[in-house]
Amino acid sequence: MTEKAKVGRNVVIEEGVVLGNHVVIGDNTVILSGTELGDEVEVGANCVLGIQPGGNKRMRKTGEGTRKLVIGKGTKLGSLVSVYAGTKLGDHVFVGDHASIREAVTVGAGTVIGRSAIVELNTTIGANCTIQTSAYVTGDTIIEDNVFIGPCVSMSNDKYMGAKAYEMKGPHIESGAKIGNNATLLPGVRVGAGTIVGAGAVVTKDTGNHVVVAGVPARLLKEEGK
Amino acid sequence: MTEKAKVGRNVVIEEGVVLGNHVVIGDNTVILSGTELGDEVEVGANCVLGIQPGGNKRMRKTGEGTRKLVIGKGTKLGSLVSVYAGTKLGDHVFVGDHASIREAVTVGAGTVIGRSAIVELNTTIGANCTIQTSAYVTGDTIIEDNVFIGPCVSMSNDKYMGAKAYEMKGPHIESGAKIGNNATLLPGVRVGAGTIVGAGAVVTKDTGNHVVVAGVPARLLKEEGK
Amino acid sequence: MTEKAKVGRNVVIEEGVVLGNHVVIGDNTVILSGTELGDEVEVGANCVLGIQPGGNKRMRKTGEGTRKLVIGKGTKLGSLVSVYAGTKLGDHVFVGDHASIREAVTVGAGTVIGRSAIVELNTTIGANCTIQTSAYVTGDTIIEDNVFIGPCVSMSNDKYMGAKAYEMKGPHIESGAKIGNNATLLPGVRVGAGTIVGAGAVVTKDTGNHVVVAGVPARLLKEEGK
């Protein structure tokens, strides 16, 4: 452990954890084996970091031996946060209180994962994105750079709703797209670059680039360049 | 306490807790009096189990003296989970991180309660169901066996929205039904056996069996056997 | 510290915390400097109270030096709750498990903030309101007295979705209004006094008083006095 870390009370740091310089760890936080915190990382209170994937027999198998959680320089996590092993958070990321990020996730530099937001497994989130409060980013999703996901947005990756195993595909949200609050994205839909999805819309098929869609199901409100 | 339990650091286990064989309890977890964990139960870090019902004067009275929380054999709970006394989880149930289950709830064997999902009081959930991430199962709800509740599904049990007390009735979701992500179910609606509700739908009245409904308000898309 | 407080195990109470008489604090809870708990306040387990606002460079600046969290007489907080400094909860408020309340928030006496509900910064909530489970109250919002916000209601305060800074305005929900579950409110909309918004509705513009609106987008179903 670095000499300069500031570690709270009742903190559990397992063997094999690597702490950078000037790390701050809040009270009652648990950091499990295999976690690496970069320089100047700050973690709030009552967090659990580096969880190994588990599940029951009806859930997807994800484990392939012990994996690492790597958190980049200057990244800050709130309180009551959970993050799994097998995931990499870039530099200067912010993760709000009560958020949860699963295994095999990559989050680009400068991105904000909001309070109580959930990011499921096998998902890639680009740089400088904003994933707002209580948004749900499903598994097997691709979010490119500079994307805005509004509060309470919901996604799905399972068009057979449990009836067929292992055919999961989440949305693909291209660079600069903006998704309004409480919108619903169906499995595998592509939201084009720079496109705006209205609040409460239900996106059932791919959209163009730089358009505006809204409604249930979502329809084109404004075409590209108009 | 059994000799073979594996108990983390800073764990609080109150008097009167019963632990089965080969139980695993994560760091900083609190297990309150009246909780019974079956053999091979695993609990993550920073959980609170066996909470006694409380509330303020504007909330429904639910207490009737001290009650037990009973957790069946081989059931696994994630981290940062809360479960109340007066509830029974069957064998081989899985409860994701940040989930919360209130009092007077029964969950059948093999069911998955997803990450950050909420189950309110006086609710029965059958066996081999999947309650996906961040789904909200309201109070006074019946969910039969083999039901799939998609992510972020919302339910209500109070058609007077606080204007009349004690007339609560949640949805009744019959065997094998599947509810798409972010769908909304109104108080007391019945979703028929094997029926599929589209993502983002708002279900305002009972559906048939083995049909497909979608839209706002939800309308019949596909009839039984067609 | 008062002599009569009942404090759990592994509790962290920082210097400068003020505890009223007959306060109860659950196990593993963290109470940070600047927090003042009134008489008979009860706090569950694994909470974090008095968090100082932070964020990264892409987030709104909210800090203006150390601020206080003041919690009124007889108020009860569940377990796994987070509340920020700079906020004031009135007397006999109830805050459910997993809920989160940010800085510069005022909550009136007797109000219920439900399980897993989120209240963002710069928001005012009146007396005797019910904010149901998993509801999302965005920043810069005004909720008057006796309002009912159903489960999973979503709000937004940013009509430019991150494209322009510092022009945030949340909804204004007038006295006695009732919002159905999973409804979506757009930035700056006014919901009139006594008005009912249907479950799953998307409110895109101001409503009258004492009317009923529903649908996507929300339309008038019932006029005042009819």
Q: What features would you describe in this structure?
A:
The structure is a homotrimer of 226-residue chains. With 226 residues, chain A is mainly beta. Chain A has 2 domains: 1-52 and 66-109, 3 Solenoid (UDP N-Acetylglucosamine Acyltransferase, domain 1), CATH 2.160.10.10; 117-160 and 168-226, 3 Solenoid (UDP N-Acetylglucosamine Acyltransferase, domain 1). Helix content of chain A is 0%, strand content 31%. Chain A is built from no helices and 31 strands. In chain A, the strands form 4 sheets. A 12-stranded mixed beta sheet of chain A has the order 1-4-7-10-13-16-19-22-25-28-30-31, with no helix packed on it. A 9-stranded parallel beta sheet of chain A has the order 3-6-9-12-15-18-21-24-27, with no helix packed on it. In chain A, a hairpin with a 4-residue loop joins strand 30 (212-214) and strand 31 (219-222). Chain A is elongated. Chains in contact: A-B, A-C, B-C. The A-C interface holds A 8-10, 26-28, 42, 44-46, 76, 78-80, 92-94, 97-98, 110, 112, 115-116, 128, 130, 133-134, 148, 150-152, 178, 180-182, 196, 199-200, 215-216 and C 10, 12, 28, 30, 46-48, 51, 54-59, 80, 82, 98, 100, 102, 116, 118, 120, 134, 136, 138, 152, 154-156, 158, 161-163, 182, 184, 186, 202, 204, 216. Chains A, B, C: This is Acetyltransferase-like isoleucine patch superfamily enzyme.
